[in-house]
Amino acid sequence: MRFAVCLLILPFLAQAQPQDAAQQLREVVEAVPVKRVHPQYPLNQVNNGREGWVEMSYVIEPDGTVSNAIIEDSSGNKGLEQSAIKAIEQWTFRPATENGQPVQQCESRVRFSFRVENGSDGVTRKFRSQIKQGLNLLEEGKLDEVNAILVDMESREQWNLLEDAWYNMLKATYHEKNNEPLMQYQALHRALFGPESTLPKKVRQGILQKKLQMEIQLNRYADAKSSYERLQALDEDGEVVALFTPYMEKVEARIAGSEIIGLKGHIRDDKPWQHKLSRPAFSVTQVNGQLDKLDVRCKLRRITFSIEPDTVWQVPAKWGQCHVYVYGEADASFTLLELPEELPSDWDVDVPAD
After folding, report:
1. Are 230 and 200 in contact (CB under 8 A)?
2. Inter-CA distances, 54 with 57, 60, 84, 86, Å
3. Which 3-state string (H, E, C) describes the chain?
4. Which of 3, 14, 144, 294 could pair with 305 in a Cys bridge, judged by C-beta atoms 3.0 to 4.6 Å apart?
């Protein structure tokens, strides 16, 4: 049986103003790959037909090596996660430069897809039956029985990318019925992670519409802008995009406005909670549980902080697009506030050095 590991380098989407972007183009040269090692597909996973995916963030150091690789999300297979980490730590690059000097490149991400060549590209009869049964039970409001089905499905050894997508679609509907929007959003996000060939175009478009709707609802505005761009590429006649355009105009106006934007954070497993910032100033408040540190990864810089609730962090705009990773104990919750450009004079602001 043949197998393959595919990788997708996730693009950096700059949000700088035109004059800032032009300055960056003059001064900054991005890192260039020198050696990429593909992850080893664990033999026991291949033999079981167990497919999956892993998305990672990593830092390219000034000497071209990779450091601080973290698993952002995955299909849940620990063996695939470990293989992905081992591989990416062997990557080397010609480093990024700023004004001719090597610098860190910190907004670097990759997605690995583990696929069994000539393996099953459909779903098993039992899997199909469980999906139909779960959907029927959801209509009847029998959430406990649906949860039992989801647990049983996840325990299966054989699992391909198509089944992973359908499992997450069922899971998203379950969390919607159970009034768990954060879990629903995560499941929708995961349903779209397989290669584009995994699901029909119309199905992907439908999931993306719901995901975009939830990103607006949950104040994940930078993610919403990325989803909107993806939807534009899928919606050939433009009818669906036209429905969302007024909402995206309001999103842009709110980002540029004076209102504080808040969103809930919840650490649920062994991975950090992450958020793509739409503004450079932010704060963490309403903390329940233990939070350990903030890891802020921007295009041109990375910095970590110990978490002090109600402190304001201001990331220099020249650092480019930033992701915030929050580490802490399982089940810790908090609120992240994205703050407007004009802050009250009595607020204490922590600005990292350039």
Report:
1. no
2. 10, 19, 7, 12
3. CEEEEEEEECCCCCCCCHHHHHHHHHHEECCEEEECCCCCCCHHHHHCCECEEEEEEEEECCCCEEEEEEEEEECCCHHHHHHHHHHHCCCEEECEEECCEEECEEEEEEEEEEEEECCCCCCCHHHHHHHHHHHHHHHCCCHHHHHHHHHHHHCCCCECHHHHHHHHHHHHHHHHHCCCHHHHHHHHHHHCCCCHHHCCHHHHHHHHHHHHHHHHHCCCHHHHHHHHHHHHHHCCCCHHHHHHHHHHHHHHHHHHCCCCEEEEEECCCCCCEEEECCCCEEEEEEEECCEEEEEEEECCCEEEEECCCCCEEECCHHHCCEEEEEEECCCCEEEEEEECCCCCCCCCEECCCC
4. 294
| Cβ atoms of residues 8 and 38 within 8 Å | no
Residues contacting 17, CB < 8 A, separation 6+: none
- Say if CB 227 and CB 295 are below 8 A apart: no
Sheet of 52-60, strands arranged across: 2-9, 105-117, 52-60, 66-74
What's the pLDDT tens digit per position in 35-79? 999 999 999 888 888 899 999 999 999 999 999 999 999 998 899
pTM: 0.84
How big is the CA angle at 163 (ends 178 and 1), to the nearest 5 degrees? Answer: 155
Closest CA to 36 of 99, 101, 112: 112
pLDDT at 172 over 50: yes
Nearest to 73, CA basis, from 306, 315, 323: 323
Amino acid at 152: D
CA end-to-end distance (rounded Å), the chain: 52
